[in-house]
Design goal:
22% of the residues lie in helices and 26% in strands. The chain is built from 5 helices and 8 strands; from the N terminus they run βαβααββαβαβββ. The relative contact order is 0.25.
């Protein structure tokens, strides 16, 4: 399976707590729910399309808990249906028994566990949010595709999509569009090693 990351980011790369108050106030983050003014029909179509490609999900603990508290109650919905029906693999050292249908904790070495999941047949192993998990995936060059939804706002602080420690890797822009509210919807596919040169 291809490992894909779909995440909401500000113009300055912050991905912390886009959805609403109480999501992730770590380090005094004061802007929880910052994406709320921007979703539109273009955003909805893009996200529905993302979930059509899912074969399984890979989630960090906090994202799992947020999703498990919301999506099972949403009924027949193009995003809820795959989330509720498909396998959900959770990276956590504290969770043990998971009661969301199809959810299980990755046991043993996380990186090796993810590599095994990627080696399985199927379409996409999808990561949504999960900023702490994402750091590990980036350090070990495990991400094949980024779907970045960049919102027209600068937050100035918060957890960022990329930090020092990410493995150097090149991507190509595979698709790009803009929503009616100014959300940049971009898909990047992994190419390989970073190439350098001299433009002088």
């Amino acid at each position: 399976m291809k490992l894909t990351v779909t995440t909401f980011v500000s113009m300055d790369g912050v991905m912390q707590a886009p959805g609403g108050p109480g999501e992730d106030g770590d380090n005094g983050f004061a802007h929880e729910g910052w994406l709320a003014p921007y979703p539109d029909e273009d955003f909805g179509r893009f996200m529905t399309g993302v979930f059509e490609h899912a074969e399984a999900f890979l989630l960090g603990r906090r994202t799992y808990e947020i999703f498990a508290g919301y999506w099972p109650q949403q009924g027949d919905d193009p995003i809820a249906n795959p989330l509720n029906a498909l396998p959900k693999h959770v990276a956590s050292t504290t969770l043990t028994d998971l009661d969301w249908n199809g959810a299980s904790v990755i046991r043993g070495d996380l990186v090796e566990g993810v590599r095994e999941l990627k080696a399985a047949p199927g379409k996409e192993l999808q990561v949504h949010g999960s900023s702490n998990l994402l750091k590990t995936l980036q350090q070990h060059d495990l991400v094949d595709t980024y779907r970045l939804l960049t919102f027209p706002v600068v937050l100035g602080s918060g957890k960022r999509l990329f930090d020092a420690g990410s493995a150097p890797v090149a991507f190509r822009l595979a698709d790009s569009s803009t929503s009616s509210t100014g959300i940049s919807l971009q898909t990047y596919e992994r190419v390989g090693a970073v190439e350098t040169g001299d433009v002088r």
